[in-house]
Amino acid sequence: MASGLRARLNAMAAAAPRVEKKPPRAGGVDCYAHRFPLDLRLRDLDGDGLRRIGWQGGRFALERCLFLDTETTGLSGGAGTVAFLVGIGYAEGDDFVVEQYLMKDYADEADMLDQLARRMERFDAVCTFNGRNFDLPLLQTRFTMCRMRDRWRDMEQLDLLYPARRTWKKRIGSCRLARVEELILNQPREGDLPGSEAPRRYFEFLRTGEMELLTEVVEHNRQDVITLGALLAHLCALYAHPEQEQNRADLFSMGRSLENQGELGAARELYRIAAIPAPAGSISALTGSSVAAEAAWRMYLLARRNRDAEGMRQILEQMALRRQLRDRIYVELSKLHEHRYKNYRRALRYADLAARYVELGEMEALNRRRDRLRAKLNKENGRKDEHGFF
To answer: Which residue pairs from 372-376 have beta carbons closer than 8 angstroms and sit at least 24 positions apart in sequence?
Structure first.
């Protein structure tokens, strides 16, 4: 009896699926440190360039600036998102030092944040790429959740995502850090792991304990930190002398940025350069014609803002000669001659020209303008007849 029961139990055990044991995983925080040659441009950052890309602090001290990037368990933030890898960089002598802190289990988070807090104590500024809205609020939340809020250090922030978008979005579209690195800094990455893949790799690591899963994540994070230094140097040099830029789309974009910051004279000069037509038949003529027209239009708006009637007229007439934005400029020329010069005949002529180019939805307003101008001309002609001018 007992032997029969034992046989049945053995048979059931043999038929049951085998449960694969997870390999033991050691916890703790792994720390990585690497030294790279310092980009010497970081030693001589221009004050105007820094201010124009968003620096709002006082004198910028490179040795007091921390470059920071995180890899997280989610890309949307929230209380449940954790930074499992924090990479920092800083200048030390002729080196750019990159240190990375990797927690190998959720229980190690407080230890990782403690090491990060001790390192942050020596810095007054932090440079990130989208850190203002993501990395820094996330880390601050994690300090709070780990009851370490008093260890968090508020620093002056310089987020390079915003000047990068303002400068290059018109030309390259998406301004992800790796894309900027490839298309702007001319340093394409080979075999780079997309940042969006990092959470999945970490969860798989937690399940299996295989450290090889995180090798590319660590390399990706290290490169991001290095790129922050190169991007800061590049942006600062670019905005120190923006008029030296060759790409008209970037010239126009920097003009918009400076205009929004109130530097109207510098913006006007960038628009002027961007508005110069490229040689006929060239590739730049084909790709840059719309940018040149937009730049000329911004020059016109600046002249209108300053109530510079002659400047407005000259810009609009030049745009007419270049056949730029004819749906807009003929309407504006009509307004200018009607209201500033009281030349109703010429105003009507430009209104009639505008009728060839404006959208159908704008025709009603334009026709009212033409009717009003005809009425003014008839009234003016009537006065001349009354006084015997004809």
So the answer is: 373/334, 373/338, 373/344, 373/347, 373/348, 374/348, 376/338, 376/344
Confidence class for position 10, pLDDT limits 50, 70, 90: low
Q: What one-character-per-residue DSSP string does 127-155 give?
A: EESSIIIIIHHHHHHHHHHTT-GGG----
Write down the residue that tokens 């008029």 correspond to. 243
Cα→Cα distances 128→28, 70, 106, 230, 335, Å = 26, 10, 24, 12, 47
Q: Which parts of the chain are beta strand (E)? A: 29-37, 65-72, 83-92, 95-103, 125-128, 156-159
CA 99 to chain centre: 26
8 A C-beta contact, residue 239 and residue 49: yes
Q: Look up residue 271 and give its amino acid.
A: Y
Tokens 């790796």 -> residue: 178
Q: Is the C-alpha dihedral spanning 273, 277, 283, 286 positive or negative?
A: positive
CB 194 within 8 A of CB 188: no
Contact 127, 160 (CB under 8 A): yes
Copy the structure tokens of residue 215. Answer: 């090798």
CA 70 to CA 86: how far, in whole Å? 5
What's the order of all strands across the beta sheet hosting 125-128? 29-37, 95-103, 83-92, 65-72, 125-128, 156-159
Q: What is the pLDDT of residue 194?
A: 87
Residue 355 has pLDDT above 90, yes or no: yes
The 10s digit of each residue's pLDDT in 152-188 is: 999 999 999 999 999 999 999 999 999 999 999 999 9
Predicted confidence (pLDDT) per residue in 38-83, tens digit:
999 999 999 999 999 999 999 999 999 999 999 999 877 666 899 9
Distance between CA atoms of 337 and 341, rounded to whole angstroms? 5
Residue 279: predicted pLDDT: 75
Query: By the 8 A CB rule, do 98 and 222 touch?
Result: yes
Identity at 161, one-letter amino acid code = L
